[in-house]
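#structure-requests
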Amino acid sequence: MIQMISAKTQKRNTAGMAFIAAMAAVAVLCGSCGKDKEQRKQELQNRLRAEFYTRELKKAQAELAYTDSLLQIAEATIDSTNVVQRIRLDSLKLEADVLGAKIRYIHRKQEGK
């Protein structure tokens, strides 16, 4: 479980760093830009941001689908007296809630709110 969480965290950090690197490259390329170049820089940043949110949304939706399937399996096989199973079920519910919130947040960002 801990290995799975650390792998997910590492993937998220890598995606975030790639986005930051792309934004830094845009800033360097248009370092001393005029007004026209500044507008192109802004358009490129907006396009990169939109691509980043789309990519993050797809990953979050895939993670949610996987977590939901694990949650359904756990709910079907739970023994109410087994504390370990109950903790695992609660953990999966929490993870599903967090992923759902992440998806809603990305949708709001894509809409421009």
